[in-house]
Task: structure prediction
Amino acid sequence: LAKGVRKVFGDQALVQRCTVHKRRNVADHLPVRERELIDAKLVRAFTHPDPELGHRAARDLAAGLERTHPSAANSIREGLTEMFTVRRLGVSEALERSLTTTNPIESMISITRTTQRNVTNWKDAAMARRWTAAGMLVAEAKFRRIRGYKDMPLLLAALARYTTTG
Result:
């Protein structure tokens, strides 16, 4: 997905990966007894007030896992810079929490699938689009304001600074 975004938008594209999924992916490569400790270290890295120090802490964690759990180390390194995109923009903590997870979009997709689940005879692509739109309307009714929404002007200002200095 990130590659596609960059192909369309070029060097100005900013990609933030989901920290929740990164943590789950890393945990999948670890023995159960080590998951909680490593996850806590990842959380500290991802939420470090200084994104550069957080990035370094995550790299150091990967280096420390290299010998004993190379797959976990590789999982940490994969897309690591994109784990700190929003933090580097300097938005509020509440808005950052909202923007560093894919949970809202996954919730919408789940509600859309639930809406479509009883359709057994799809006539054509137009029908699929209509049912998808209907599912999204059902999901929309369940949307709440994202945490930190009042800080959106700060995000816009940070993005404007990035696009002029990028």
